[in-house]
Fold this sequence. Notes:
The chain is an alpha/beta fold and 448 residues long. The chain has helices at 2-16, 19-49, 82-89, 105-108, 121-142, 147-152, 175-209, 212-217, 222-258, 262-283, 297-305, 309-337, 341-362, 365-368, 373-378, 385-392, 399-427, 437-445; strands at 52-58, 73-77, 96-101, 112-115, 162-164, 170-172. It contains 18 helices and six strands.
Amino acid sequence: MNKIKLIIQREYLTRVRKKSFLLTTFLVPLIFIGMYVGVIFLTKKSFDESHSHVYVVDDTKDVMNKLNSSKNVSYLNENQDLQKKIQNLQNEDGKTSILYIPKDFYESESVEFLSNDKPNLAIEAEIRDSLNRIIKDKKYESYGITAEIRRSIKSDVKIKSKEIKENGATTESNTEIAMGISLALSILVYISLFLYGSQVMRGIIEEKNSRIIEVIISSVKPFQLMMGKIVGIGLVGLTQFALWIVVSVILAGVASMTLVSKEELANQMMNNQAQQSQLLSNQGIENSSSTISNESIAEVISLLQTVDFPLIIGCFFIFFLGGYLIYSALFAAVGSAVDSETEASQFTLPITMPLLLTYALSFGVLINNPHGTVATWLSFIPFTSPIAMLVRIPFGVPTWQIVVSAILLILGFIFTTWIAARIYRVGILMYGKKASYKELLKWFRYKS
């Protein structure tokens, strides 16, 4: 036991003291936050630069008066002949285009949109929506339905989802938030198991090729060496995750102090929505999906507070550690059987197929029906439960299922480690011989 402890200590301290560990630990949260801010900034800049000027040649002499400019499109009345304007368009920039509305527009419901290059899809969609609204208004008027009547019959149903707990109490719930957390956990666990499992395999291959493994084996048993490497690198992963959480919380706290309060932001959102609704009401335009969502930021924060983050974080560490121990044992067996990472590819794909399958299903089957038969059984199988159970937990899982899944995961680790150790003890001393599945089976059956 002391020898395993020494190996764990060596593997842990060697990796934690590396500059690469410190850089990734403290830079990853900053990189993700920077990417998030960058996406918002670039998206806003892209929208600002995509503003288009549309010259309207209106043969109906009616539609132009009903077109309302927006932050994306500015409609300009053009009295020139269409052909003359097309000739002049060659000297304009790519943000300028022509909208030709024929006399029979209300009957044909067709227009021409001319530009120097391929039109922006967002601009084209906005123009289409505006023209559809104008045609719809015209038809309403023909039936004697005025804008005031349409506004009076408009409805906006809000659905407040509530979850009934085992004690009969009800709490607010939100499926979208649960889906977001589930997908984030699925991606994080999938990448982490591959990342740290590959580190175990890569470390064994390097020590095997450098022949230092022969010196180590003279002092410890192969099983002790394998377990020491697995546990040591696993603790490195848990340390990194814990530091990521701490750094993320600190950065979030700093950001919350520098930004406006959530109450002010929510009030601003409500005021903007009221102003936009009033503007649309004055124009007689129906309030469509283009308006700001009725769910304010304060409501989103309130829903986030209903999420049991301690349970999710606790289960994440349990199932990540269990999944890591299982797959790292298999990666260790593969690393002991080959002399290079190129040779390892034929073995790594089959052992990671259950993980890959569960990861693929998490985007459809597991999220759409987290309490279904497929999702439930996948959360009990040790090779798939690290992802399947974490995807289901944000949607609410009975405690007994979490406990049973964790116990089966531990038993799966013991069984997998036993198999991997029998291959590892022989393969770690094999050089120059290309391994095959038949050879691995022979090593497994070998009696020392």
